[in-house]
Amino acid sequence: MYSGVSDTPLDRRDALRLLAANSLLTAVPAPLLAALREIHAGLDSAPGLKAFNATQNATVIAMAELIIPETDTPGAKGTRVNEFIDRIVAEWYSDEERASFLAGLSHVDEVTMKMFGKNFIDASRAQQSEVLRELGNGMTRDAEAVVDAPRGYRGELPQPEDNFYFRFRDLTLIGYFTSEAGFTKQLHEEIIPGHYDGCLAAAEQKKAG
Fold it and tell me: Which terminus of the chain has a smaller tally of CB atoms within 10 A, N or C?
């Protein structure tokens, strides 16, 4: 659980609300960024799944890797985004929220079974991509249904925070971009200068050069 790394710590619900409201990490408060990095740092010291079983974990790995595939830099799997999401679901979510998220994973299998007659992890990569496209269409429909919510930046649809795929996609992006590889190789910046230990070696080499 978020341990409070500043004089004004955020509680879990405040943190989750901020994660949902801020798609850009530059808009996330420093204490929350520090807490997210702590999750990554703790993966080796406390290995093992906390919320997912093996099948659920395999589903998360496959979905996240489709969202952020490996290129010349590590993708979601290489940056252990599945373990990051597992920790968030286990330690930050309430029992109700955790049950809802796990039900969302089950629904992914239901959609895949309806479309292709198999579970998500047994489907081909092309079939899995089709499933995510269908989930994305559902997310858009849910956003359009939030008729009373104000439009976002440049008139974007309101965020359907109750939609499983919306939450999953955001957790995947946040997990990736707060990992060392995502932060240093993709964002190419220190949001909190001097506080991301993983950047120190590269920064010192740059100065030496």
Answer: C
Q: Backbone phi, then psi, for 146, in 5-degree steps? A: -80, 70
Q: Quick one: tokens of 158?
A: 């309101």
Q: Are 68 and 49 in contact (CB under 8 A)?
A: no
DSSP designation for 186: I
> CA-CA distance, 105 to 180, in Å (whole number)?
27
Q: Which two tokens stand for residue 96?
A: 């109700």
Predicted pLDDT at 71: 84
Tokens of 6: 């500043």
pLDDT at 104 over 80: yes
Give Cα 121 to chain centroid, integer Å: 19
Report H helices in the chain. 12-21, 30-41, 54-67, 81-91, 95-116, 125-145, 164-177, 180-181, 200-208
Structural domain boundaries in the chain = 12-208
